[in-house]
User: Which sequence fits this backbone?
């Protein structure tokens, strides 16, 4: 909650800076009482601009690029992964390394869609060091951006890639992905289907058949 509060304060600062106000005294109350209108913007480009300048968690200190997300802004399917890797951090785009190549192939061969037809994002928008999973503090700090993306894109179905994406998006921190994958779950006013992360499939090629089954289920739903 503290990080979400900090994010809302940061949005306020952006707002008042745009109005030419660049000084507040050290009494936070005088600042926070100025206005309660500090929701995230209902515009994907403005939301992206905010995220590109975010420095609320430690991941911002080591990033080369913020990886906001990309794809069809009216996509029926939204894929959500864990976080950027080295190639993604270098290029500022999600899933463009080996995992991304596999994901693109899966989209094309099982869903009969182009990558540009779907939307792809991650739980966190900055690369965790050594490609480790984001911790709870990092995920919760970044989550408001992702939730707003979901609201604006309004997909019919969300596909979470791997356990990290599923647990931070749903709040279910305990159920193993092996028990969840392929199960269609109600998520707000849409559907959610957890499946394996492409990096897991690269390490375990025999599991690709499960991803194939899951994507056929997604295609049938649509």
Assistant:
């Amino acid at each position: 909650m503290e990080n979400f509060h900090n994010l809302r304060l940061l949005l306020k600062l952006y707002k008042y800076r745009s109005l030419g106000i660049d000084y507040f005294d050290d009494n936070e109350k005088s600042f926070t009482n100025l206005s309660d209108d500090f929701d995230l913007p209902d515009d994907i480009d403005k939301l992206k601009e905010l995220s590109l300048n975010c420095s609320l968690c430690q991941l911002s200190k080591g990033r080369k690029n913020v990886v906001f997300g990309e794809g069809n802004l009216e996509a029926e399917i939204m894929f959500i992964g864990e976080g950027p890797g080295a190639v993604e951090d270098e290029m500022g785009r999600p899933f463009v390394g080996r995992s991304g190549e596999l994901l693109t192939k899966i989209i094309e061969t099982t869903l009969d869609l182009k990558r540009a037809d779907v939307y792809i994002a991650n739980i966190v928008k900055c690369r965790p060091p050594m490609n480790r999973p984001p911790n709870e503090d990092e995920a919760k700090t970044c989550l408001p951006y992702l939730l707003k993306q979901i609201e604006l894109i309004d997909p019919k179905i969300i596909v979470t890639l791997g356990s990290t994406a599923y647990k931070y998006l749903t709040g279910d921190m305990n159920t193993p992905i092996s028990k969840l994958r392929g199960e269609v779950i109600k998520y707000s006013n849409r559907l959610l289907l957890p499946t394996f992360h492409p990096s897991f499939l690269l390490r375990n090629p025999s599991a690709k058949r499960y991803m194939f089954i899951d994507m056929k289920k997604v295609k049938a739903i649509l």
Q: What stands out?
A: The longest strand covers residues 190-195. Confidence is low (pLDDT under 50) at residues 14-21, 26-37. The beta strands are 70-71, 77-81, 119-122, 157-161, 185-187, 190-195. The chain has one domain: 40-221.
